Amino acid sequence: MAKRIDVSGLNAYYGAHKAIDDISMTIEPRSVTAFIGPSGCGKSTFLRTLNRMHEVTPGGRVEGKVLLDDENLYGAGVDPVAVRRTVGMVFQRPNPFPTMSIFDNVAAGLRLNGKYRKSELKDIVERSLKGANLWNEVKDRLNKPGSGLSGGQQQRLCIARAIAVEPQVLLMDEPCSALDPISTLAIEDLIGELKERFTIVIVTHNMQQAARVSDRTAFFNLAAVGKPGKLIEIDETERIFSNPSVQATEDYISGRFG
Ligand SMILES: Nc1ncnc2c1ncn2[C@@H]1O[C@H](COP(=O)(O)OP(=O)(O)OP(=O)(O)O)[C@@H](O)[C@H]1O
Ligand SMILES: [Mg+2]
Predict the structure, then answer these.
(1) How far is the CA of 43 from the centre of ligand 1 (A)?
(2) Pfam families recorded for this chain (predicted)?
């Protein structure tokens, strides 16, 4: 199920402003890749090009290729809605549908995608909540609103919603930045479990988190304010944090800038 991502020569723009320049990288299936780098270097923008969300922003434009196994997501005739189903996304702020029940939050994507029998839906919702390590905390209140959960629980609810439709890739943009340390560890543990089934990319400003959860780390940087962000290097996480190839990476991870 999990797929390899192969990016080549990717540029992304907001109108005339080029936000990221000529990015190429390969992301292996069943692995976690962390994106790190200073604010504004294009991590979120690049992440959103991996499921065709970038072009939803007014003026948003992409050049280059993103292959999922062998299919170019930007190829002619590819349906962006289908791409977003295959490549799921979890955002920085947990965003459950506030008026929907916990059950309906998880079922929402499934209902959009097709017809399921009631019993099938129940099974998938249960499996997804278990997959997100939330089932035990909510099984007795599935009909209560999702907004009544704690922040960490809401984020796990959003992860349950994302995995319910069985994506092949899961993109996470700073999924723990609004969470307390305990919820953060719960999400990190969960990421460790989910990588058995999905290809995972996580943006984080937390260097310890990148070191804890990821197999590989990509460091992005800006040459100067107003210039597009570039990929500086990508390597095994252990290597990036012990002996990176580029001085700027070393400076960033040791807190000398950014
Ligand atoms: N909707 C938008 N319209 C115009 N420019 C944007 C938009 N979103 C982002 N940008 C610009 O694109 C560049 C990259 O932004 P992006 O949000 O991808 O950075 P980031 O690395 O995720 O930063 P952070 O760590 O602060 O989240 C920045 O110069 C930013 O101002
Ligand atoms: Mg960002």
Answers:
(1) 8
(2) ABC_tran (PF00005)
Strands (E), 28-167: 32-36, 60-68, 71-72, 87-90
> What is the Cα–Cα distance from 244 to 246, expressed in whole angstroms?
6
Q: Which ligand is nearest to the CA of 40?
A: 1
> What is the chain's mean pLDDT, rounded?
95
Count CB atoms within 10 A of the CB of residue 245.
12
Report the CATH number that the domain containing residue 73 is assigned in CATH: 3.40.50.300
The residues, any chain, with a CB within 8 Å of residue 124's CB and separated by 6 or more, are: 106, 107, 110, 116, 164
Pull the structure tokens for residue 217. Answer: 């780390």
How large is the average pLDDT for residues 227-235? Answer: 98
DSSP lists the bridge partners of residue 20 as 12, 229
Read off the amino acid at residue 220.
F
Q: pTM of the full predicted structure? A: 0.95
Identify whether 143 is part of a domain. Answer: no
Domain boundaries, position 59: 5-100+167-254
Residue 231 buriedness (CB in 10 A; 0-12 / 13-18 / 19+): buried
pLDDT band at 103 (very low <50, low <70, confident <90, very high): very high
Alpha-carbon gap, residue 156 to 178, rounded angstroms? 13
Question: Phi/psi at 226 (nearest 5 deg)?
Answer: 90, -15
Ligand 1: atom nearest CA of 92 is: 27
Residues with CB under 6 A from ligand 1: 14, 17, 19, 39-45, 57
- Ligand in closest contact with the CA of 60: 1
Atom in ligand 1 nearest the alpha carbon of residue 226: 29
Residue 258: what pLDDT?
61
Note whether residue 114 is domain-resident.
no
**Which letter does DSSP use for residue 135 in this model?**
H
